[in-house]
Amino acid sequence: QVQLVESGGGSVQPGGSLRLSCAASGSISSIVAMGWHRQAPGKARELVASITNGGSASYADSVKGRFTISRGNAKNTVYLQMNSLAPEDTAVYYCKSISNPFRIYWGQGTQVTVSS
Predict the structure, then answer these.
(1) Which residues pair with 114 in a beta bridge?
(2) Quick check: helix, strand or coil at residue 52?
(3) Which among 20, 31, 62, 91 is least surrounded, fewest beta carbons within 10 Å?
């Protein structure tokens, strides 16, 4: 089992920045990748960014050049630096981990609101 706890959400004006953090506990040695998804009201949950243990990162087209995903030195944390935020980035952001053997775990979510 892996437990994930997010932090760092909040409200920001358009053009602002936020940094989300996610700390994993439990069977962290089984984790092979971590990432962030988001879900806006009335929309499906979508992948924002992901990163493997080797540091290979991928991003949704909508956030490329604005968001940066990174892992902590201890590999049990993942961060999402969000710059140039826009109202369409408003959503609940969920941390995700993928373990080997294959298993997906989710955090409880943290709200990000971008509004003037």
Answers:
(1) 12
(2) strand
(3) 62
* Cα separation, 76 vs 18, whole angstroms: 20
Token pair of 104, please? 């997906």
φ, ψ of residue 75 in degrees (nearest 5): 65, 0
Interstrand relation of 110-114 and 10-12 (parallel, antiparallel or unpaired): parallel
Helix (H, G, I), strand (E, B) or coil at 28: helix
Residue 94, token pair as written in the block = 């969920």
Give me the tens of pLDDT residue by residue for the chain, a chain 116 residues long: 999 999 999 999 999 999 999 999 999 999 999 999 999 999 999 999 999 999 999 999 999 999 999 998 777 899 999 999 999 999 999 999 999 999 999 999 999 999 99
Q: What residues have CB less than 8 Å from 41, skipping those under 6 apart?
A: none
- Cα distances (angstroms) measured from residue 79 to each of 26, 43, 68, 73, 95: 18, 24, 8, 11, 9
Instruction: Supply 15's token pair.
Output: 């053009």
